[in-house]
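Side project, low priority. Logging it here so it doesn't get lost.
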Amino acid sequence: FKLSVALMFIQVMVFAQAEGTSKEEGAKNMNVLLVTPNGSPFLPAMYSSVTNGSAFYKDEFIPATIFLGGNRTAKSAFVRLDLVDNSIHYLTDKKEEFIVTQTVEKLVFENPDNTKEIFIAGNSLPTENTSYKNKWFLVIQQNDITVYKLYTKKIFQYKPFNSGALEKTIETYEKYFIIKDNILVESKKSMIK
């Protein structure tokens, strides 16, 4: 109990310190937040019985910059995006997996080939569809048009014949959107992956 209270106190102090700083100082302080247990713990048992598919945009952890509200940023070398529950996972310096609990506006993955993949939070796009508000949209630039790609992951459970255990399959669906007349509009070229 004493350890929990001490960790909570440290967490609050580090977050409060990051709140009152400039953008550069905030990024440095927020970096501290992403290598210490500051989010909620991730329980890997959640996806333990998945036999096909993945909950994540990419299974491996890759470097990313996380854009939080109030012009604050955080960097981490170990981030991945869960598209089943739309959460952002990161590894601490002790290789413990946590989920970012703060509001995130944008996520920029920095791939090993020096390309970047930008995800925008659905609540920052002009849409009245409330189901899109908690989703992540991959930004794809095509000439003068910006296309937004939405990955939707769904879990299907089934019980194999003569088995007592449930197994899970995760399927990925893709939809494409553009902004037309200041509103997010779906393209008709959606597909299953």
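Brief comment: The chain has a mean pLDDT of 75.
Revisit when time allows.
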